[in-house]
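INFO batch 0412 | record 1 of 1 | parsing
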Amino acid sequence: MANYRRGRINDAVAQELAQKMRDISDPRIVNNFVSITRAEVAPDLRNATIYYSVMGDAKEAGAALKGMAGLLRRHLAQTLNLRLTPMLSFCADNSIEHGAHIAKILHELDIKPIDEENDDE
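INFO prediction complete | emitting tokens
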């Protein structure tokens, strides 16, 4: 399977799951502000790793997602036209937190703009 096709499948899976997350009324999901950041489907379409971001209790949200894996997989089977519907495994994505940490470090650095450096000379 070509990489561009797998990329389209990854995007479609992530988009469908993100849409489904809006319809879920489980308080463990709603109260912790869970959002799907990306999906990585294996080349054989049998497994998919779904990365999610949480603004609350990550452990509780992870348990809720693991419990809903069957429901979410059935939703994918009904909405996506795939030969096989992948088994879903969930992984917490801390890239947003990591990016915020890097932005904080860069903000704390005392670097003069280029225009100010030229004025000093």
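INFO post-check: Helices lie at 3-23, 27-30, 58-67, 69-79, 95-108, 114-120.
INFO record closed
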